[in-house]
Every structure is written in C-alpha cells, then in structure tokens.
Amino acid sequence: MTIEVHGSVEPGFETVADAFAASFAERPTMGAALHVRVGGQSVIDLWGGIADERTGRPWVQETPSVVFSCTKGLMSILIARLVQDGRLDYDAPVARYWPEFARAGKANITVGQTLAHQAGLSAPRENLTEDDIVDWNRMAAVMVAQEPLWPIGTGYAYHALTHGWLTGELVRRVTGKSAGTYFRKLIADPLEADAWIGLPDALADRPAHLQVSAPLSALWAEEAKKPAPNWPYKAMTLGDALPADLVTDDGGFNRQRIRAAEIPGAGGVATAKALATIWSATVVPTRGIRLIDDAVIATATRTQSEGVSVFGGDPPYSRWGYGFQLDSEARRYLGEGCFGHDGAGGQVGFADPARQIGFGFVTNWMMGPEDQRATGIISALRKVV
C-alpha cells in the first residue's frame, strides 16, 4: 500500500520529501507531518497517512498530535524567555520564586539544575493516580514534599514527566499564569501556531489517535519486570497514573481528560507546522517575532548533563542544556549548536541557529529505539542545507 503525501516542497528540498515519504513504508495505518522553515520562511510542508486507524480519518494539514517530551522543549523556551526578561535566573535557587520548594532538602537546588534533570525528582516516591496528575496543585505539592532521590550535585536522571510540573510551577510563580495560559499568550497566539499545553475540550476531536508499535510495547514490558524501585520506569508511569507506553486505545494520552490537563512534561499537542514555526522563532524573526536572543541561547545551550545517569542505562546518551536537548549520538540534529527536544514515539522539534532553521516532525505511530524516521529525514535535510 502506497501512502499519498500531500503538501508543498520548495526546489532543492525534494530529497527531504522523499525521506518523509519513505517513513510510511510498511506502516499502513501511520499518519505523520513534516514542516521545515529556513530564514523564517516555509520550505517544506508535508502530511500524509491516517490520523485515526479506527475510523480511517485521514491526516490533513491541520491535524495535531500529542508531542510528548517535545513539550519540555516548549517549556524550556518559556523559561529562557523569562530569563531574558529578567524574571528568572538559571543560577538562582528554585525556592527564591517558589519558597515551599525548599522543603525536604531542596533549598539549594537551582533553576538550572531543575531544567537539566539534576533536581533528584525524576520519579515520585509515592504511587500516583490519574486523578493526581490532572490536579495541578496536587502535583506541585508532591514536588514540594519529596526528598530528592539522589544527593544533589552527584548526577542527573531524566525527569520524563515531573520536569513539566517543576518548570510549570516556576512559570506560574513569576507570571501569575498557568504554563498553558502563558504559553498561548507569549508563543502560540502571536505566532498563530496550532499548539497547546492543555488542549481545549472544544478541540478534542482534532488530534490524531496514537498507536504503539510492537517493539516499543515489548521494550516496556521487559522494563516492567525489573525489580523495584525501578525509578526510570516509574518516571514514565508515576506509579498508577499512566501506562508505560503512555497510551492505550482510549487511555493515557489518547484520553481527552489527560490532554486537557496541563502536563508540561509530555502533554503538549501540536501540528508539525506549529513546532517548526516556534523553533524557527527562537533563532530568526518568524512572522515578525523573535522569542529568545542569541545571548540567552548561548547560555541555555551549554552542556549541563550528559553520559550515564545516576540509575545507569545503555548508550547512546542524550546531552542537555538548560532544558534543551542538544545534538548528540542519541538525537542527531544538523550539527553542533542545534537545540530542541524529541518526544516519545518519534516526535522531533528543533532549531539550528547557524542555518536559521526550524524543524517539526510529528506522528501517531509510536516507535522505540528501532525508529529511524526522523533520523533519516534530518540526515536528508543535512545534505541540502
């Protein structure tokens, strides 16, 4: 079965379009979209496949999808802008802005350490439920009460979901607005970007329906067999709040109750065009807007965490700045200086300051370590820019 790809490609980028089309091979129920901006202008706008395999609904230009940890990248842009505006300081203790956070040995944890996955709160000590994670005040209280899982300053571990409540509460404390509200005010509305942290119920029927590939499910099934406390596994499930795959047919992030809640570690919903537009605006005026300046980018993209985490794990390893995922063996962008964030199952958004590029790829066919779709597309792009 051949998937028909729709959209437009500027001359010179045809091989990137070919790589996008190739990503559908042997995946008849997959849907996906790709958008690339260069110098603020769109050069690739493509989509294709199936948005919902249950009904056959096709993927269209306006189809958004849950972008999972790409949401951390969006939150890191928000934090960087607040640093630029003098409202936050990466070197300041979180407790300067959020006094209650100082409890349980956390008085000296800095904003920067929190963004760089060094805060020791990668997973909750208690088992949480879905009711907990849709309640912002409850999750903020969990972060306040918890003692770090390791001595601060001795390493890092990926805060798969808790990262969002930590950064989101910082946004709320200094702006008086929730993370999703401030994101729309500062970024999504001015850029006319179809992106949300907290999807309105009126738009509940728009997102693609998420599916999980067999290898990814098998990977998490094996992880679940490891003895407790398995903190990396619990970082994904939060106990009883989410399935390890993050979705079931009608649960997890396929459930509007979850998508409507502001879960800034993984719950963002966006189109590929929105991701590319937002990341473009971090490095070059896009639709007349530049979100963060070169000096803040230089600070925010200095390596803070890399290599093996405090809980071990196999290579390749990601590399982190202040919340931004940097070019590494685990996630290749276009080269040194690029920054962004990928998301569970294959989502990718990033910026390249040198080439003034914003990139967005989203899909509803979630894959694991075997996934080469975005990698192949980025490799093709690297050869033409």
Predict the CATH topology. Beta-lactamase
How many strands in all?
15
Look at the helices and sheets and give the structural class: alpha+beta
Question: Major beta sheet, specifics?
Answer: 10 strands, antiparallel
Q: What is the CATH superfamily label?
A: DD-peptidase/beta-lactamase superfamily
**What is the count of distinct domains?**
1
Q: Which CATH first-tier class would you pick?
A: Alpha Beta
Secondary structure layout:
Blueprint: E1 5-9, H1 14-22, E2 31-38, E3 41-52, E4 57-58, E5 65-68, H2 70-84, H3 111-115, H4 130-133, H5 136-145, H6 162-175, H7 179-191, E6 195-196, E7 211-212, H8 214-224, H9 231-237, H10 256-260, E8 268-270, H11 272-283, H12 294-300, E9 305-306, E10 319-320, E11 325-326, E12 339-343, E13 347-352, E14 357-363, E15 365-366, H13 373-384
Parallel strand pairs: 7-15
Antiparallel strand pairs: 1-3, 2-3, 2-14, 3-4, 5-8, 6-8, 9-10, 10-11, 11-12, 12-13, 13-14
Helix pairs in contact: 1-13, 2-6, 5-6
Structure write-up:
The chain is α+β, with helices and mostly antiparallel strands and 385 residues long. The chain has a single domain, classed as DD-peptidase/beta-lactamase superfamily (Beta-lactamase, 3-Layer(aba) Sandwich). The protein is 32% helix and 17% strand. It has helices at residues 14-22, 70-84, 111-115, 130-133, 136-145, 162-175, 179-191, 214-224, 231-237, 256-260, 272-283, 294-300, 373-384, and strands at 5-9, 31-38, 41-52, 57-58, 65-68, 195-196, 211-212, 268-270, 305-306, 319-320, 325-326, 339-343, 347-352, 357-363, 365-366. The strands form three sheets. Strands 1, 2, 3, 4, 9, 10, 11, 12, 13 and 14 form a ten-stranded antiparallel β-sheet that branches. Strands 5-8-6 form a three-stranded antiparallel β-sheet. The chain has a two-stranded parallel sheet with strand order 7-15. The longest helix has 15 residues, at 70-84. The mean pLDDT is 97.
